[in-house]
Amino acid sequence: MGDADAAAIRAARGDWISEHLEIYLTSGGTRGHIMDVSAVGGRALTTHCLIKCVGRKSAKVYVRPLIYGNVGGEIVVVASKGGADTHPGWYLNVLESNTIGVQIATQAFEATWREPEGEERHQVWAYMAHLYPPYLTYQQSTTRQIPLVMLTPVRPIAVFSAEGSQ
Fold it and tell me: Coiled coil: which residue ranges (predicted)?
């Protein structure tokens, strides 16, 4: 697949992602948490969170909707970028931050993050691929190891809004 195919996927889904983000933000999280992604190989009842981070170069605030899972009380997101050969910008921004914001439905938190390694990573990857099977195809299409980010909520924060975010 590589970067060109991943870009085509993002372009085709770009409007959907923007609409999804707007629904999630304008509803305060009462809508957008569970979405049907069966049209793209996922499941009908797929959970989504929002992550908020600051751009490492731009210093702008970015909010992104992402599929998530829950493993042992930690929120897990996947930096797949549709199987592109480069990491998504949000992941690179997370690497430069000690904490990020995460919103699940109507609750938002500041969270610390880590990346699982070894056997734990293998188990978490299998779980996330079960939640969203296209992750397997994405991994097969690139030589990079698609990162997993595990988030631990540390304190409640205000739910996200569209104002001031990109």
Answer: none
